[in-house]
Amino acid sequence: MNDRRWGFEEAEDWEYEKSGGLPAPVAEPEETLVGQDADQVVQVVVSPEADVVAVRLSPQWRQVVDPRALHTSVLSAANAATVSALARSVEHADLAADGTPPENAGADESALTTRDVQRLLDTVEEELRQFTARLSAIVDQPAQVRSSGGHVQGSAQRGQVLALDIDSAWAGQARHTEIETELTEVLRGLHEASTPQEMSAGPRGSAISELMGLAANPRLLMRRLGMPAPTEPTGEG
Prior knowledge:
The chain has about 240 residues and is of the alpha+beta class. It has one domain (about 20-90, about 110-225): 2-Layer Sandwich (Ybab, Chain: A). It is about 40% helix and about 15% strand. It contains 7 helices and 6 strands. The strands form 2 sheets. The chain has a 3-stranded antiparallel β-sheet. Helix 3 packs across helix 6. The protein is elongated and about 75 Å long.
């Protein structure tokens, strides 16, 4: 994914210069996913977690897309990349779910009464309510990001880019690297602002962890409830 060229033409020296005052690109992870627009003039490169790594423009993009419509191509490529990352995460989640749950060595073996179970469920409900409230306060409002150069701005919600606004006069004459850098800055900022990383793992809490541990180990749950655990078949006739 390190080749910046889309064809066999020679690159101009200025195409590899970094624009002063703009953030430097981050190093690409070992695995990346690419979203591309229908005209194949824009590529948005993301990590498997949908973090934006880079935006790449075809050197001939102005011959295909009017600068006034560039935002549409970038929006299409960005959301295609997000969908690819989501599909990958679902696939890997399915593979992880096929594994055998651990035996929870050293887990609490104390007896659970009906009152204990009800208290646990009530606490889980409260932890979920608090998580939902915190999450809604962040993701229910579209995030707004503007590039440090001031030529690109956009909005996103729940990880999806809703709108992009690109200064078409600037895009019509700016260097490719300048456009790519400002687009990357905005798309990366929108992803970070609309998908809070501290909540990406889902709701957490002592009661939630305990309930998940019990659900993952039915034998332990039955022992703590005072019920006989099912025996493994011996295979004898």
